[in-house]
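=== How it folds ===
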Amino acid sequence: MDHPTPADAPERAVDPIVDAVDADPPVGGAELTALLGRYAPFDALPEAERRAMAAAATTRRYRPGELVLDAFAAAGVEVFVVVRGQVDMWDDADRLGEAADERLGVGGVFGFSAMLSERSLGPRVVAVDDAVVAAIPAAAAEPAFASRHGARFLATRGLATAARRRSTLPSYSLVADLVDADPLVVAADDTVAGVAARMTACGTSVAVVAPERGDDPEDDRYGLVTDALLRRRVLVEGVAGSAPVRAVVDRDVPTVGVGDSAAEALLLLLDTGAEHVLATDRGGALRGVLTPRHFAVSPASVGVSVHEQIRRAATADEVARRARRVPSMLADLLAGGLATTKVVAVYSAIVDTVVRRALTLTFAAHPDLSPDAFTWLALGSNGRREAVLSSDIDSAAAFADGVDEAEIARYREAFAEVDAVLAAAGLVSDQHGATARRPAFSRTNAAWRESALSWRAAPTDDQGAMMTSLLVDGRPIHGDPGLPAATRVFGELRRHPGTMRLLLVETLSTRARSRSLRDVLSRRDSVDLKHDALLPIVNIARWAGLAVGSTALSTIERLHAAAGSMMLPAAQAQNLAEIVEILQRLRLRYQLLAHRAGEQPSDVVARDRMSPIDRSVVAEAAREIASVQRRMDNVAAYLPVEQWVAPAPS
C-alpha cells in the first residue's frame, strides 16, 4: 500500500533496512542497557533481561527526514526505542500529510502494536534530526510486554490506542468512501410525473426532495422519492401525476455524516430497516444517497448480505441456516481491522434481526395473537449492544394495559416458540430465566411500572437490584418503543440516596479478580473474562450512569458520561473504557477460535491457551478494576451520597 510522504519529510523515503547507517559513534550494550532501565516498559525488568535485549538489538542512525518505520505497509517484527535525537510519529494513515501526531525523544518506544498484533496497524515514523534508534527483535522484546508493568503500559498506551485509530480500518471504511455519485435533487413543487420522468432519464430509482424551509419542521429536511413509493402512492392510492411531489415524499429518512464510519452507517441501516441512508457534510449539505449496494465494497459492511438473508428468511430453518454464517462474518470483520466495539455492535444488530424474524414467523402461525399488543425488550448485553457469541438472549415483554392476564398467558406460549427458533439459530435464552416466556418478564406496562417503583424503593427485596440492572439495560427492538414505562422510573433513581447506596453495594459485590494463591492451590487454571473482569466494569458503568442521570446504554458511553466525578475520576473512567475495548477483543478472538475448532464459545479460557501477553493484560486489567472498586468503597464510606457525583478536584 502506498502512503503519502509526511509534509516535513523529503520526497525520497529511505528504506531503514537498506539505507540506514550504523550508529556513529556506536551505541554500546552497556549504554543501551542503562537507557532501557530508565523508560517503560523496560524499567521494571531484571538487569539480566535488559542486557539480553541490548545484546539482541541493532542500532541504526537516520538523517533528518529519513523513514524509520512504516508499519502501515507491513506488520512489524521489532520494537523500536529512540536512543539519540527525535522522531515524528503518525498514528493515522489518513493524516500522513498533516503535522505529526507525536514527537518522541530519547526513550520513546514505538512499533509494539504492529509487532504484538502481527498486523499493519502503524505507525509511520520519520527522523526529525540526526537520530539513533535501537531495533529490538520481537523474541527478545516480548518479556517487557508480558510483565505486569508491560501490561499496564499496553493498557494505557498500546493496544487501546491502536484500537482507537481510524487508520486501523481498511479502505472504504468511511461514508465518504462509499458515496459514488451526485444524487438527483428535485424541488417539492415539482410534479410527481415530472420527477418520475427525470428519474427515468437519469437511470436512478431514487430522487432527493430538497427542504422547503417552511413553518413545519418536518419539511425542513431532505426527503426521498423512490420507484416503490411512486408505485404505491400513484398506482395504488391514486395520487395524480400532476400533484406536487411533496404529496408523496418520505422525509423520515436516516442521515449520516460523510465522516462517520461505514460500520456506523450500516448499523443505522439495520436498526431502522431503511432501504436508503442520506449522507451529509458537517454543514448539513447533501453529499449522496447510500443503499445496501454501496456497502458491498466495504469490509466493515459484510453483514449487510447476512442481515438481508435473515430478514427475508421464509422459515425458522432458513433463519437458523443463515445465522450459522454470522461467526465467520465476525472473524472477517475482526481480521479486516474493524474496531472490536464496532464488530460487537454489528453482531448485536444481527441478533436483533434474528429475534425480529423469529417473532414475525412465530406470530404468522398464530393469527389470533396480535404482534402489535406488546413491545419486545432486549435486555443484558444485547440491550447494551455488547453481545458476543457466548451471550445469552435476555428478553422481556411489555403489554398494552388493555391486555388481560389470560391473554398474556397465551402470548407466553408463543414466546416459548420464539425461544426455540432462537436456540436453533444458536442464540440461547438466559439460563437464569430472564426471558419473556416467564411471567416475571412479561407484564402489562402498568404492572411493570408498579414493580419498578417497588424495586426503586427497596432494591434488596424481590430481586429488585437484579431486575433494576436488567431493565436499565433494556432496549425496545419490536413494537412501540414508547410503551415500556419501567425505565422512566429508574431515570429518577439518583434522587433516592438510600437506594443508590444499596445499589452501589450490589454493584461492587462482583469483584474483579486475577489469579490468586487459592487458584494455584485449587488448580484453577482458567480465566473467566466476563465474570472476573468485564462484568465488574459493566456494573460500575451502569451504576455511574444512573448516578449522573445518563440515558446511554453502552458501557463505554456510560463511563464517559460519568467521568470526572468524585466516585469516578476522569482518568479512571478512561482507563476502564480502554480496558473494555481490550478485553472485548480478547474475548471475541478466543470465542472465534473456539468456534473454528468446533467448540462451544465460552467466556472461560484455559490459561495454557492464552499467550503470556494476553494473560498479563487480563491480570493487569483485573488489578486496575479492583483499584477502582476499592476507591468507590472508600468514597462511599467517607462522603455523603450527594457528593458522590460532585466534580473531582483537578
About this structure: Confidence is low (pLDDT under 50) at residues 1-25, 158-170. The CA atoms of residues 399 and 444 lie 4 Å apart. The radius of gyration is 28 Å. The first strand starts at residue 21 and ends at 22.
